[in-house]
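Hi R.,

Here's the input for the 6-O-phosphono-beta-D-glucopyranose complex you asked about:
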Amino acid sequence: MSARSPSSSQPSDAFIFFGASGDLAYKQVFPALQALTRRGLLEMPVIGIARSDWTLAQLRERARHSLQQHGGVDEAAFERLCARLLYIDGDYHDPRTFERLRAALVGTQRPLHYLAIPPSLFAAVIGGLAAVGCTSNARVIVEKPFGRDLASAQALNRSLHQRFDETAVFRIDHYLGKEPVENLLYFRFANTFLEPIWNRNYVSSVQITMAESFGVQGRGRFYEEVGAIRDVVQNHMLQVLALLAMDPPIGRGADAIRDEKLRILNAISPPARSAVVRGQFRGYRDQEGVASDSKVETFAALRLQIETWRWAGVPFCIRTGKRLATTATEVIVEFKRPPQIIFDEYPLPPSNYLRFRLSPDVFIALGARTKAPGERMSGEDVELVVHDDASEDMMPYERLLGDALRGDDSLFTRDDCVEAAWRVVDPIIHGAGTPLQYEPGSWGPADAMRIVEGRSDWRCLAAPAGEPANGSARIPGRIGSPSTTHGRRQDPIN
Ligand code: BG6
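And here is the predicted structure with 6-O-phosphono-beta-D-glucopyranose in place:
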């Protein structure tokens, strides 16, 4: 039976984070807490819990160090944060840990518990909280990976629902807290010109690339348990896909958006074996914490079909990888060619597309063909930049933790959506064989080309602003890309 949950209009009045000595707290949570404190949104006890034999002074020291590495210390905000910070050292299986927490929470009514810990510890922590009455009127934030597959995600949901209403559960996918990802939804549904062409009659394919030039960055042990498909495809990339493909939500609420996302995820069949390529960069097996015969993929490319009236027959191609040629996340929605050739030359590939650049720089651009000046009726490819966002983005964790404190669940994932996303990738992760090797600095195994059916290669990514085009990263079969732009340099990089 679930505990009473706070109504969405009541903000939380205590913030508790389990895993206070961990990597996630170090990289994301402390910077977000400082930012929230600076904005006056964290006027409540902030309680870190870990089993590290630490003192409060050590936790403060760790927080300072984290801030020095991630955005800098704002002395005034840091001092205010430290004044609110408490620390409980204890094992998550030990009832005394939770008794100390209950004592620390005296005088508060609506705690927000953030489980910044591996999912294998969720059940112990939830049980410990419930035993001392700390789940009553509480909210809980859980981190990805939310389970390892469909069955474990369902089990986790059951265990959460024993103590919390679904409305009190906040599943973090930090991609949903990114400004350009929110803009996918906004741009699609705040403009009328897209809707008539946003379907199988005009769109020939959609490509989503999340490329990272770095490797597993000392997280070999963690990565061995997940691999690229669990780490980013099941969550970040399928969320982006759902935002691109969903129908307009009926109404404004968070659930209206989630209902439409769910419809899309449910309409994706798990891809055939021939529509999946898994790769592993050469040298991965030498990383600390990685098995010498590891079969974990550091690269994945998938072709998905969405069986709806709007999208039937349009390939949605996804690729991601570590140690690739560059770090960039980008979506290309490519439109069909004009129906007749009336000029001598004909552009290849199709020149009409929308490019949504999600990181490291942020812009939306429209690819078009215009006549090149001169006597001949021949043209050139141009990119019209619709939106170029150079503003300082709010950190996703600052946005998401702030939303959870206020009880706003719009940017969090619902139980059925998480399970639907697992259903798409479940057969791939369970039937996975040995991945193909690829060279660090490349675009993954050459086989990934077969995912982009009907084309000879993936569309080129725009080079990150200020970086030269990475010609050395080209893979065989590459075809041309726009050379001219209006307003933005567009050196292609694969
Ligand atoms: C995380 C993954 O969820 O997202 C990492 O675990 C990945 O492997 C990261 O590098 C990418 O997120 P961002 O916001 O840095 O692009």
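One thing worth noting: The pocket of 6-O-phosphono-beta-D-glucopyranose is lined by residues 212, 231-232, 359 (CB under 6 Å).

Cheers,
M.
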